[in-house]
Amino acid sequence: MSKAISKAKYLRQLYPFKEPSTSIDHLVIGGGVVGLSVAANLVNTSGKDKTTFLVERRGQEIQTNRARNSEVIHSGIYYPLGSLKSKLCIRGRDLLYDRCKRLGINYKNTGKIVVATSPSQIPYLEKLHKHSQDSSFLSNPNDISTSSIFTKLLSGEEARELEPDLSKEVCKGLLIPSTGIIDSQGLVDSLSREIEESEYNQESLTEDRGEGIIVLGTRVVRIDKEKKGNGWIVQLETNWEGLEEGEKGDVESVRADIVVNAAGLGAVSLSEGVSGDNEDPIKMYAVKGNYMSYKGPGVGNVSRLIYPCPSANIDHLGIHLTLDLEGNIKFGPDVEIIGNSKDYSINPEFWEKHLSPNNSIKLINKFFKNVSNYLPLIDLNKLQPDYSGIRPNIVDSSSKNSKFSDFLIKHDNNNKIGFIELLGFNSPGLTSSLAIGEYVSKILIQKQIKGKYSKIGNEQIKKLEYLSKGWEA
């Protein structure tokens, strides 16, 4: 492939237009937890005889980045009021806890403490506490205990009563009870079953449920807007893994009414390759986060997640302590930017070579220095590089907050009617996943009500109006 062109343009040259051999209603691209949630919601709400296909480029059983994220159910405390991250995280958190209880997915509502180790950090905790009391979070405007992100300020002594291993330097804490941890693979398995098994999730079961199919080992190589009509022509390639550059696998072309791009780290490149797209390309950069496991002294009493106050000159939450469902302790992630938007455009899979954890002595010392500020009795020699994860970050030139990058959901954009793009879904993507699926399905329901995608009867309109309540899409 020529270095002068992007991977998206190269694929359009390699795969000429091909007439579709079959037609479906919805095509979801990407088998991560977000794509699975979108597909499950579309199957449940789109109507009888509607078909939803989910394609995942990897050939193995669909998995999340279980070994590549913290598996934390976030509270939603950190995100600006009105942002998608705030809305979707809080709604997704509640949906996750409910789903875990109903369907037997392993989870634990551990709670979390954010700790200040110097008086200069206390205003940060007070700001978070005040944020949690905003009227938009209160079910009873006169009672702050009804906040959907309830928090409690603690003295240093109160924080150590809850977590005795904390440093004596901890002078303030913020307790956030709604944080938890989840078996993310159990969630993925549950959503996969809901897509393909009509009787699985009885609470979501409707009389006019559609049909869902998951197709593994299949990648999207070209997307074209239908010349006559509002659909999309998508070329799918199987048997592609292991091919040399320029070689092709088996290519099938399908027509879809709606395409949802939930390809994660590949989403921006996929969007760039859509024909006739004259928009300025979205810039994406990949961020690597390293994690370290720990089995040693100084953490024997830990029962909650413990987060430090982040430094003023960084835009992440600091190296924190998380637990898994077996009680194992890990620290991380740090933040390491890999490549740039040009690297990504030329080779959207470049990040795969960065998946190995960084095991340098320098990084181990960095972790020890950060963590020992709030857990002083840990042993440097017991820190072990464990794994790393890669997160997609997008550059939003319209944002007024240079340190905050919101989720981006694009739909009905210029010539992309019926093409929904889910971009920049980093943390809290796992927590938000069920709400994202709900949100996307309601976007389409509201379009149906307005008659953009189909002509429907009065009874169906009443039902759709009921289903679409609760979101402004």
From TrEMBL:
Q: Where is the FAD dependent oxidoreductase domain?
A: 25-441
Needed cofactors, names only, are: FAD
List the molecular function annotations (GO) for this entry: (S)-2-hydroxyglutarate dehydrogenase activity
Q: What is its EC number?
A: 1.1.99.2
Report the catalytic activity.
Answer: (S)-2-hydroxyglutarate + A = 2-oxoglutarate + AH2
Question: Keywords of this protein's UniProt record, alphabetized?
Answer: FAD, Flavoprotein, Oxidoreductase
Q: Which residues are in coiled coils?
A: none
In terms of PANTHER family, this protein maps to: L-2-HYDROXYGLUTARATE DEHYDROGENASE, MITOCHONDRIAL
Per the record, the similarity remark reads: Belongs to the L2HGDH family.
Q: This protein is called what? A: L-2-hydroxyglutarate dehydrogenase, mitochondrial
Tell me the lineage of the source organism: Eukaryota, Fungi, Dikarya, Basidiomycota, Agaricomycotina
